Amino acid sequence: MEAISTLLYFLITIGILVSFHEFGHYTAARMCGVKVLRFAVGFGKPLLTLKSKSGTEWVIAAIPLGGYVKLLDGRDSEQQIAPEEQAIAFDTQPLWQRSFIVAAGPLANFLLAVILLAFIYINGVPQLPAQIQAPAEQTLAANLDMEKGDEILAWKSTGDDEFIPIVSWNDLRWRLLDAITAERGFSLELEAESGKRHVVEFKGDALPRLSPNTDPFARLGILPIPGKDADGQSTWFELQLGPIDSLIYAGERVWLITKVSTRMMIGLVTGETSLKQLSGPISIADMAGKSAQF
Fold first, then answer.
1. Could you tell me whether strands 151-157 and 186-191 are parallel, antiparallel, or unpaired per DSSP bridges?
2. Which residues are catalytic?
């Protein structure tokens, strides 16, 4: 039963992602004056077809694993374009408009990710504090005299002028991945359990490289304290932000994840990244099922 519900929520998630992606192409095409012949969610036999006044067919098809937007295009051998419609065909538009239409799909997904993530932060999400375990011997953190219970308060990439507050372990984790994949050094502002604050610096050329067989966080010596403290009390807290802060934070987070994911995909080609380190359809399905339970 759980497998069925996971599959169902996976299909719903894919449907939302595809619809938003294709709607980006559709909206950009309409903004540029290009005629849209069909907007389809799914492949295969149409289950439902509606036609708008503008002449666009809106289709829901049998196989909900994709979709497409079909534009009036003189390069399509199946289309017979009347002379009076040449001006509204995709292939007759300036290069910048064609580029805008093509890019609008991914941009729409980026916007969707920001909106959904902002909504999560507005409602509140459980997080672990950016407090570390005792670093293993010979790791970079141990060599910099970092200790168990140190809390990372702020982050500054090498070359930047100001420190950025760290709000949770998840926040720190993505910034660490960004630094590792970019091979860029960084500084951390720490607060020890005694209350003393100090700054440590990690050099870019000393950072661990991505490897299919090693955990970069373990090699750094920066791992989170599990969800309970020494007294058995939960260390989880709820991170909740206001609407404006949520949008700003979500935009920064999505951009950060995009950069890291792009570098890791490049690493997949060069052999520096393992498939296990990338999330794909299986991860999406599993996460969709779990999210629906909350």
1. antiparallel
2. 22
Give the residue extent of every domain in the chain: 1-125+237-294, 128-224
Pick the CATH number of 128-224 from 3.40.1410.10, 2.30.42.10, 3.40.50.620, 3.40.50.2300: 2.30.42.10
Which own/partner contact pairs does 255-258 have at CB distance under 8 Å and 24+ positions apart? 256/174, 256/175, 256/178, 257/174, 258/110
The residue among 216, 217, 224 whose CA lies nearest residue 267 is 216
How many other C-beta atoms lie within 10 A of the C-beta of residue 193?
11
Q: Which residue type occupies 168?
A: S
Instruction: Burial-class residue 71 by CB neighbours within 10 Å (0-12, 13-18, 19+).
Output: buried
The series of mean pLDDT values per 10 residues for the chain, 294 residues long, is 80 89 97 97 93 94 91 92 94 97 96 96 95 95 95 96 95 94 96 95 92 82 84 86 96 93 80 57 44 40
